[in-house]
Each structure stands twice: as structure tokens, then as C-alpha cells.
Specification:
alpha/beta, five-stranded parallel β-sheet, globular
Amino acid sequence: MSRQIALALVRDLFFRSKIDTVAAAVGAEVGYASTLDAVASRCAELKPSTVFTDLSDDAFPALETLKQIRAAAPAARVIGFASHVDLKALKAARDAGYELTLSRSEFTARLPDLLRP
């Protein structure tokens, strides 16, 4: 069975622990990047099949973040999430070309499936 490797662009330590708990339960590996400058090197290191981006975090503007991901991991599935009231961030991600944009609660609910190969 293949193991899913994901990169999460998430700086919220509490939310990272939630992601780690789900990843452990489904047998996935998740690495993190805390800055836009670190995205390319973490993509090169992990070779993720999926990249999750916290769109509500100003450290990861949708278009610039997607450009960094595509340059370093062109085949990765890119999924963004934000607060359900942060419609501007969700729209910016959809317009930039993210494969999937979800509210934070939808992301949390779907995370087990998103982490399965």
C-alpha cells in the first residue's frame, strides 16, 4: 500500500496537532512549512502528492503560494482551506487555480479522505 505524503502550509500549532492526529490514524505522512520562502525546499524534500494551504494566513497569499508549489511540485494536488467567512481568500484560491477550496470545518471533516492515497 502506498503512503500519502502531504505538505501543509500551516503555522497554527494547535491545528497542526489535529492534522498530525488524523495523519497518524490513516497512515499518512505530513510535513510543514511555516513561510512562503520554505515552500520550494519542503516540496523538494518531501515530494508531496498533496499540498494543503491555510488561506486565512497572510503568510501564504493564494497566487504566490500556488506559483511556488507548481515550480517545485508540479504534479501535487493543491487544496486550500479558510474560515467559512473568509470568502475573499477562498475566491482568490479558486481564481489562482487551486484544485479544491474548502471551509476550515469542511477541510477538517474531509481530512481523513484527503490524506488517503
